């Protein structure tokens, strides 16, 4: 195109042989050279008829561009924000760092600029509004973008720096998961997601029409992982990254009807703790890898959603269920009282500011916490841990043991599925474990029963009809390895590592009982 600016349609009718430069690659070392960039128009500022400034954005990086000349300024500064532009510019070094941009040590002088896709003039939400922290919104009394508005316009919301960081971190979690297990000799499998019966005998399944009969969306790959090991696919184990479906009418901060499961299953020689050690090492590999590889992404998230770095050691803290309940009873009341006092202060502040809805919501939390704290000193040794118990225990472990990452082992057998191996010495306990980050469970696992007679017996005791999953039972009749494993909620790992308050922030297009779009 001969003209130095204008609208340009890319329809694959020619090749320019241009060399393109990424915004994050712009450094003072390139000063004096000309570069082509394709990026979003993040902002424009018309200084005068002949001078303007535009800011280009590409993922997590931004750069300031100087536009000179009446026609060029009129065109460039008249484009809607979020438009896609191709820019040819000379790299220069500004007299002072441009602190408003990530590439603060350089400035571009435009030679040519072409709009290849013009954004709508009126956007359903402004990116600068969506990218602010709650503290900034409250302090400056600026517009707040509500969660439903974000999710209804998710494509725009995903462009915020925090979301760019979150979903690049999510990608790295999956890469680190796969990297670690492949390095241990595991193989990746892909189990069916449409199945003939409710997996694991559960009721919370989605039913669909499958030709002339019904099928169900899989709640987990649990049974297929085990069957894969019985098919000798484990060396020493198998893993899968895939969707999981739960027909639960749950509106909590940590549940969705569809999420991504990071599942592994492994044979062992003597003791199921061989598998637990691999799982613990897997998490530590993920945590260390994120800190090492995602520094820029972590800071982008922290700028909008402040969080403290995850505390974890080179080995995981491991508690038995009995020890965990003892810790909760011993330290929970005092630490819980501190948390209650802080919540009461937040409620008082909201009332003084006239934030009636926030004050009302906090009053409900205060009331619920008071009621919960009454139960903590008398929590039974084998009583189930509620979500509130788990959160308080997380605060206790963080304070007393100085870690946010820990394992609870040897669960009460009554709380685990029918296929969980009982403790050989104490049958009321099970060879089962959960893994926690910041007081929330991210993995549930156990040694599985590989003896078909024992499996049938325990299923009968728990009232589980094995007829619909007879293929699973039969798989242990032909010679079965002792094995164990676990399922990890990928979005929950991201949420808790980053200290986010809602799992929907770590899901690209979340699904819950009220949301099936976009």
TrEMBL record:
InterPro entries: Aa-tRNA-synt_II (IPR004364), aa-tRNA-synth_II (IPR006195), aa-tRNA-synth_II/BPL/LPL (IPR045864), Asp-tRNA_synthase_2 (IPR004523), Asp/Asn-tRNA-synth_IIb (IPR002312), NA-bd_OB-fold (IPR012340), NA-bd_OB_tRNA (IPR004365). One of its GO terms (molecular function) is RNA binding. GO terms for cellular component: aminoacyl-tRNA synthetase multienzyme complex; cytosol. Transmembrane segments: none annotated. Keywords: Aminoacyl-tRNA synthetase, ATP-binding, Cytoplasm, Ligase, Nucleotide-binding, Protein biosynthesis. The keyword ATP-binding applies. Its EC number is 6.1.1.12. It is an enzyme of class 6 (ligase). It is found in: Cytoplasm. GO terms for biological process: aspartyl-tRNA aminoacylation. Gene3D superfamilies: Bira Bifunctional Protein, Domain 2 (3.30.930.10), Nucleic acid-binding proteins (2.40.50.140). It catalyses: tRNA(Asp) + L-aspartate + ATP = L-aspartyl-tRNA(Asp) + AMP + diphosphate. The keyword Zinc does not apply. Residues 167-518 form the Aminoacyl-transfer RNA synthetases class-II family profile domain. It comes from the Eukaryota. Belongs to the class-II aminoacyl-tRNA synthetase family. Type 2 subfamily. This is aspartate--tRNA ligase.
């Amino acid at each position: 195109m001969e003209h130095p600016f204008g609208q340009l349609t890319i329809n694959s009718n020619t090749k320019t042989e241009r060399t393109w430069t990424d915004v994050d690659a712009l450094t003072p070392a390139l000063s004096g050279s000309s570069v082509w960039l394709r990026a979003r128009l993040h902002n424009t500022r018309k200084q005068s008829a002949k001078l303007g400034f535009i800011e280009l954005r590409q993922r997590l990086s931004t750069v300031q561009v100087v536009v000179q000349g009446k026609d060029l300024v009129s065109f460039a500064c008249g484009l809607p924000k979020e438009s896609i532009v191709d820019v040819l510019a000379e790299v220069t070094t500004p007299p002072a760092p441009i602190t408003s941009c990530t590439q603060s040590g350089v400035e571009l002088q435009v030679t040519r600029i072409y709009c290849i896709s013009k954004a709508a003039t009126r956007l359903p939400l402004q990116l600068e509004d969506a990218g602010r922290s709650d503290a900034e919104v409250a302090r400056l009394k600026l517009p707040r973008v509500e969660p439903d508005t974000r999710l209804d316009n998710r494509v725009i919301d995903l462009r915020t720096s925090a979301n760019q960081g979150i979903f690049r971190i999510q990608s790295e979690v999956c890469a680190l998961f796969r990297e670690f297990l492949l390095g241990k000799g595991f193989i990746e499998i892909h189990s069916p997601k449409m199945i003939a019966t409710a997996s694991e005998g559960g009721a919370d399944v989605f039913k669909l029409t499958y030709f002339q009969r019904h099928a169900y969306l899989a709640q987990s790959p649990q049974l297929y992982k085990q069957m894969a090991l019985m098919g000798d696919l484990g060396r020493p184990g198998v893993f899968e990254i895939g969707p999981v479906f739960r027909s639960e009418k749950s509106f909590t901060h940590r549940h969705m009807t569809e999420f991504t499961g990071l599942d592994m299953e492994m044979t062992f020689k003597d003791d199921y703790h061989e598998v637990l050690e691999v799982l613990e090492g897997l998490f530590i590999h993920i945590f260390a890898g994120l800190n090492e590889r995602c520094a820029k992404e972590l800071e982008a998230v922290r700028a909008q959603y402040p969080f403290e770095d995850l505390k974890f050691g080179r080995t995981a803290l491991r508690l038995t269920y009995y020890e965990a309940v003892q810790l909760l009873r011993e330290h929970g009341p005092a630490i819980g009282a501190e948390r209650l006092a802080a919540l009461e202060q937040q409620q008082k502040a909201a009332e003084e500011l006239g934030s009636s809805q926030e004050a009302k919501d906090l009053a409900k939390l205060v009331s619920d916490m008071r009621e919960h704290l009454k139960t903590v000193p008398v929590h039974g040794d084998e009583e189930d841990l509620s979500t509130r118990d788990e959160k308080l225990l997380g605060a206790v472990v963080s304070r007393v043991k100085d870690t946010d990452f820990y394992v609870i082992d040897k669960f009460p057998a009554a709380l685990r599925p029918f296929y969980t191996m009982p403790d050989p010495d104490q049958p009321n306990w099970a060879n089962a474990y959960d893994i926690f980050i910041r007081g929330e469970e991210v993995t549930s696992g156990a040694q599985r029963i590989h003896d078909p007679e024992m499996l049938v017996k325990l299923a009968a005791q728990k009232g589980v009809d094995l007829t619909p999953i007879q293929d699973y039972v039969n798989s242990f009749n032909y010679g079965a390895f002792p094995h164990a494993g676990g399922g990890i909620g990928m979005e929950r790992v991201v949420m808790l590592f980053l200290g986010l308050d809602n799992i929907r922030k770590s899901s690209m297009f979340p699904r819950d009982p009220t949301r099936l779009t976009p």
